[in-house]
């Protein structure tokens, strides 16, 4: 009886393979749980009640107010600079009321009063030039041409986004990689068990032939 049990014991390599499989299964489940609670749920809430529309520029203007940004000039070098506030007012195909355009949801959260946040440079003049360039772009390059924008009636009814931070591709990858990790772990465990079972059966058949 003791010899029969010993036959079913896993070798060191098989034991490591089983541990790897269970580790991948646990990692996949924890990733799904963590992403669902910390990232995916807010992203879906952000997208809920939203949609796309055609936007047309109504006005492009710079406010007198300036905002602070933080620049980095090295590992231990950081400082504060300022940039002017650019506002791009648009009309959407869903509503006749003007709305404030933003680059994306992150920019909206960073500065809800402005349409554009330039890459923070050490020189205030450079920041002003970047904002002026963006202002000319919306006035001269875009003008009255319609373009696609995104809105969310529930969260920010008076704001629209030029692009979404959480698009379908990001949401797909949010699900895809934890699921792939989980399935690879399951596959490793199943293959290890099957290989061991076949080896035990082959050993049993071999012993029967030798009797």
From TrEMBL:
Q: Name one GO biological process term.
A: detection of calcium ion
Q: Which Pfam families match?
A: CaKB
- Bilayer-crossing regions: 20-40, 170-193
Q: Where in the cell is it found?
A: Membrane
Which InterPro entries would you find in this protein's record? K_chnl_Ca-activ_BK_bsu
Where does this protein chiefly localize? membrane
Listed under GO cellular component are:
voltage-gated potassium channel complex
Membrane topology, record value: Multi-pass membrane protein
Give the protein's recorded name.
Answer: KCMB4 protein
Q: Which gene encodes it?
A: Kcnmb4
């Amino acid at each position: 009886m003791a010899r029969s049990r010993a036959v079913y014991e896993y070798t060191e390599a098989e034991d490591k393979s089983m541990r790897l499989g269970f580790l991948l299964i646990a990692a996949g489940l924890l990733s799904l749980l963590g992403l669902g609670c910390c990232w995916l749920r807010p992203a879906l809430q952000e997208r809920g009640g939203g949609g796309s529309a055609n936007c047309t520029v109504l006005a492009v203007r710079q406010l007198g107010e300036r905002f602070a940004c933080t620049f980095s000039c090295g590992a231990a070098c950081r400082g504060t600079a300022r940039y002017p506030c650019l506002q791009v007012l648009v009309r959407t195909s869903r509503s006749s009321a003007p709305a404030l355009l933003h680059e994306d949801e992150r920019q909206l959260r960073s500065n809800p009063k402005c349409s554009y946040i330039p890459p923070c440079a050490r020189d205030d003049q450079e920041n002003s030039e970047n904002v002026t360039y963006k202002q000319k772009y919306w006035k001269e390059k875009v003008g009255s041409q319609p373009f696609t924008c995104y809105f969310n009636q529930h969260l920010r009814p008076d704001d629209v986004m030029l692009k979404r931070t959480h698009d379908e591709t990001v949401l797909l990858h949010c699900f895809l990689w934890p699921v792939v990790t989980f399935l690879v772990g399951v596959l490793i465990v199943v293959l290890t068990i099957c290989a061991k079972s076949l080896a035990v059966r082959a050993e049993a058949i071999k012993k029967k032939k030798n009797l």
